[in-house]
Amino acid sequence: MPKISDQAHCQTVLTTFEMTPGTCYDLLEELKDAYAEFISRQPGFIGAGLHVNDAQTRIANYSQWERREDFLAMLRTPEMRERNRRIAALCKSFEPVMYDVAKVF
Fold first, then answer.
1. What's the start-to-end Cα distance of the chain, in Å?
2. What's an example of a GO molecular-function annotation for this chain (predicted)?
3. pTM over 0.90
4. How far apart are CA 20 and CA 104, in angstroms?
5. For site-directed labelling of 65, which of 8, 25, 47, 71 has its Cα 20 to 30 A away?
């Protein structure tokens, strides 16, 4: 489970997916399956959360990894590359961005 802390020494990744309401739940199922079957079992994975906006046009994903290299290694696996092709077919765009937690209130 992710824990947001400015004292943590981990890599935070925020990914925003943009889609139509018609593909929102197909994409959500694809993402849930990716986490359950693959991503959560990768070295360095700490936790993640998936969030859907009320218009069903965006999914926000928050994930934490022990190290930046762990996240990048997961992305480069043949399985995740194949999954990302299926994910890309269900949405207009998606972009993972790495962040450091600056402050928590």
1. 19
2. monooxygenase activity
3. yes
4. 32
5. 25
